[in-house]
Every structure is written in structure tokens, then in C-alpha cells.
Write a structure and sequence with these properties.
α2 crosses α3 (36-43). This protein has eight helices and nine strands. It has two domains: 3-68, 434 Repressor (Amino-terminal Domain); 71-233, Umud Fragment, subunit A. β5 and β6 form a beta hairpin. With 236 residues, it is an alpha+beta fold. It starts with a helix and ends with a strand. The chain has a nine-stranded mixed sheet with strand order 2-1-3-4-9-5-6-7-8.
């Protein structure tokens, strides 16, 4: 992978984090020591960065070079070879905290598993906002507290396939609520989601666990929803 591609990926990551409200150009300028115009020109593609400049931004964002490498560059070197079989597509397993990142860096990949292309191609997307650059499908292993809150539908150690191009709250099937991977309280959880006015309700299946509530503005509500859970495996 060429250095220019690494710089383009860094630009994309910064743009996505600013769009998500995690950063501003001004804050990045203050912490890196760059002038704000310098940051703006970099983000607009009017100028590049030196290696030292890239290092400053990587340190500020707490990223490494591996976070800039496209997963496609790593997949051919991965020990598993399912993806080389005709009719299969490799899907990345990532930590719950990384599942809401628009771009999955190579360092975030924990494993790779095959899914039949015919199955994935039948799944309908329903995007709110522009997620066309997001890698559509990711896998997340359910943590203990999440699995208990959704028992008996899923248990600890289960792996869920998330369609991140389906963050709409419209039912996928008539009269059947969607199950979502959501981000709130600093963690990734699996919940049923309902919006009432300016609030999102995150409902567990297990009645022993409370319903969580998040106040949202219309434009920000979609940021809580990572994607629709479209497949649950007891173990992978």
C-alpha cells in the first residue's frame, strides 16, 4: 500500500470523526500545533502532510499506522482462506467499541469469517445519512452483560452479524421488531430500539434489565444505531 493511500485514509478518518461530532478542525489545530487553515487545506485535499505531520495527527487521534491500512491489504495474508472460495465473502470480526467506526482499520480486525454471498446479497439496506463508505457488514462477539440482557435469544459468546447500512428504525419485516447493535453509555449493546419524540428507548429482552433512554436530536439519533442484527451465531 502506497504512502499516498495511507494519507488519503487518514484524511477520510478525520473527516468522518468531525462529521460524527467527535472532533472539530479547531480542536485538532490546537492539539497538533497546526494552523487551522493548514488542517482545512489537508481535509479539502488542497495539500498533503509530511511524515512528521501525519505522526502528529495520529498521536492526537490515538491511532497507529495499521489503522490506515485497508483491510483488503491484510486479508490475502490472513491465515484463513475461506474468502478465496467462490461464492463466499469474508466478514471482519471486531470489538464492540470499534463496530461504530465508519472505517475498520487492520489493527481492529480480530478475525475473519466467511458468509455466503447469496445470503448477504439478499439483505436489504435502509440507510439514514450517508454510510456508503462504511464497510457494510461486521461481526461482534457478545459480552457477558449484553448476552445476559438478551437471553434466551442469545448468550455470552454469541457472535452477531451487523448490517451497518441498515440504521433506519423502519421494520425490516412487517409486525416484527428489528434487533439492533447500538452504542450508548460507552459500550456496544444489542437491543430493540424505539423512538418516542426526542428520545430513543433501548429495550432488552430480559425483563430483569432496565430500559435505557437517550435524548437525541433528529440529526444525531442515527449515531446511536450501529446497524441491524441480521444473524446470530451461538459461537464462531
Amino acid at each position: 500500500m502506497k504512502c499516498q493511500a495511507l494519507q488519503d485514509n487518514l484524511r477520510q478518518i478525520v473527516q468522518e470523526r468531525i462529521a460524527a461530532g467527535e472532533w472539530t478542525g479547531l480542536r485538532l489545530s490546537e492539539l497538533t500545533g497546526f494552523r487551522q487553515a493548514h488542517i482545512s487545506n489537508f481535509l479539502n485535499g488542497k495539500r498533503g502532510l509530511s511524515l512528521e505531520g501525519m505522526d502528529k495527527i495520529l498521536r492526537t487521534l490515538k491511532l497507529g499506522v495499521l489503522d490506515l491500512v485497508d483491510p483488503e491489504e491484510i486479508r490475502p495474508r490472513w491465515p484463513r482462506t475461506f474468502g478465496s472460495q467462490s461464492g463466499f465473502q469474508e466478514v471482519l470480526l471486531v470489538a464492540g467499541a470499534d463496530a461504530r467506526q465508519p472505517r475498520i482499520g487492520s489493527r481492529q480486525v480480530q478475525d475473519v469469517f466467511p458468509f455466503r454471498e447469496t445470503f448477504l446479497s439478499r439483505l436489504r439496506p435502509a440507510m439514514e445519512g450517508d454510510r456508503r463508505r462504511w464497510e457494510r457488514f461486521v461481526l461482534v462477539r457478545i459480552e457477558r452483560n449484553v448476552g445476559s440482557s438478551m437471553s434466551p435469544k442469545m448468550g455470552t459468546g454469541a457472535v452477531v452479524l451487523i448490517d451497518r447500512h441498515y440504521n433506519s428504525l423502519r421494520p425490516y419485516r412487517k409486525y416484527e421488531p428489528n434487533l439492533y447493535a447500538v452504542h450508548y453509555g460507552g459500550q456496544c449493546a444489542v437491543r430493540y430500539v424505539e423512538q418516542i419524540g426526542g428520545q430513543l428507548l433501548f429495550r432488552p429482552l430480559n425483563a430483569d434489565y432496565p430500559i435505557a433512554v437517550a435524548k437525541v436530536r433528529k440529526a444525531r439519533g442515527k449515531n446511536f444505531v450501529i446497524g441491524r442484527v441480521c444473524y446470530v451465531a451461538s459461537e464462531m
